[in-house]
Amino acid sequence: MTSTWWHDAVVYQIYPRSFSDSNNDGEGDLIGIRNRLAHVASLGVDAIWLSPFYQSPNRDGGYDVSDPRAIDPRFGTLLDFQQLMQRANELGLKVIVDLVPNHFSDQHDWFKAALASPPNSPARNRFHFYDGKGVHGELPPNNWESVFGGPSWTRITESDGKPGQWYLHLFDSSQPDLNWNNPEVNEDFEKTIKFWLDQGVAGFRIDVAHGLAKDEIYQDHPDPVGLTAALRLDVTDIDPEYRKQLLSDIPFFDRDGVHKIYRGWRNLIDTYPGDRFFVAEAWVYPTSRAVRYVRPDELHQIFNFDFLTIQWNAEEIRAAVDKITSEFKNVTAPPTWVLDNHDSPRVVTRLGGGAIGLAKARALAMVTQALPGNLYIYQGEELGLEDAPVLPEHRQDPIFFRTNGVQLGRDGVRVPIPWEGDAPPFGFAEFNSWLPLPAHWRELSVAAQQQDSQSTLNLYRKLLKIRKSHPALGGLAGVSWQDAPTGILRFRREPGFELVANTTDAEFKFTTAKTLLAASMPIQTTGSDVTLPPHTTIWLSE
Length: 542
Ligand code: NOJ
Known about the structure:
Pfam family, one: Alpha-amylase
Number of helices: 15
CATH superfamily of the domain at 5-102 and 203-223 and 251-310 and 331-353 and 364-464: Glycosidases
Largest sheet: 8 strands, parallel
Number of strands: 21
InterPro entries: GH, GH13_cat_dom, O16G_dom_2
Domain Glycosyl hydrolase family 13 catalytic: 13-414
Helix content: 25-40%
Mean pLDDT: 97
CATH topology of the domain at 5-102 and 203-223 and 251-310 and 331-353 and 364-464: TIM Barrel
CATH architecture of the domain at 5-102 and 203-223 and 251-310 and 331-353 and 364-464: Alpha-Beta Barrel
Structural class: alpha/beta
GO molecular function: alpha-amylase activity
Bound molecules: 1-deoxynojirimycin
CATH class of the domain at 5-102 and 203-223 and 251-310 and 331-353 and 364-464: Alpha Beta
Strand content: 15-25%
């Protein structure tokens, strides 16, 4: 395969609302991002991915888009976006934006027109409007559950004031699903893709890329509640075999119809110069189904989410790496690695929090950054942030409300990041922030970590620099495992690179003739004797 920049790129995810606020309204914005972009460049990444900044009533953090070709005034203007692009260019960073094709906001003109139009009209046909079941249509067309909890159907009131049809929303009721059987929908999305490509973006992250095609609607699922549980990363009290069975056949995800759409988009993006690409957010089971999204004439990358749930355990990590690298050998796409994002717990928290969680997260980051393929880093991961506590009155995530608070939702991972200073909001904004930053983040701010040679920030900078310059790192050549005791992960990449990770609670002693390149925690060496403390990874070179 001919190599291209996105085969082993490092992409830094920016959640615009929480990155940097330039106008002191408590929310991040595009000028704020532009002003702070040097920080991102200092990490040595290749690109930024911006989560949605499009016009949106913000019921689902901007993933409820009411105009995909307009910028929400909360984030700025098109001129601000263009200036951000220019700054990114100066700093050698490419820009990737989000595309949200499964649904629009209920405030999109199309949905307003659908509500104002009669059943079976062209305006309704852009969404999934159906008559209900039951004598008076009082029951939803099927029993599917929303991924965010609660029913996936909402009944509307028709213009005569009577209860009427139902519309499908796999997420919040403010996010009506689009009907991809209607060619008008694709035409509109191609317009959006062209709009942003013409603005110079290097690619798109496709939201819910596995969701656009649906099965026959008037058909119930045998276990909708079980399916919702199976889809949740945090639910563990479910029989693994039953979970696999549920996940391998979902009437609204990973239907074959999605692939035709992506072949069309691939043709479109290929008409543009430069190596631009699509990355799919597609939760697909098993991996052999996932790689179908990245066949040569389809999308370029698919997120591999295995590391969002992986334990800090050598054997588990090795099995996951083997599975992914072997499946990806059969397609021309590179594997991708993600430790956290705006939807999942921060990796430090997930691995137990506190000093141990941080040690494990740093050690896991070193494993991840040494693997072949692409890396996605979520803002704040480079600071070793944990999920922040969020008071009930500050919660915004529809998951919290749709589950009546049973699930806390994702607000804790979306708290703005700390830049500098002694008191919250630590330079994110001058006075207030839409979600408060914890006081102890003073020590974790960019400015504080800059001064500390052992900080997570300086570790990330160092690792990414080595990753760029070491001839064995980056690229797509695989890893070769070395014999190691239980709990120790050891692999080589050629030429001359070796990684040793100690996932156990005990020290691991070994000898090596190689030079130490980096360590996730300070380690002791005496001549060629190395003592690796618990939960530590090192990189060595010949
Ligand atoms: C995945 C996005 O990452 C998430 O934030 C959003 O809530 C859902 N898709 C629905 O768009």
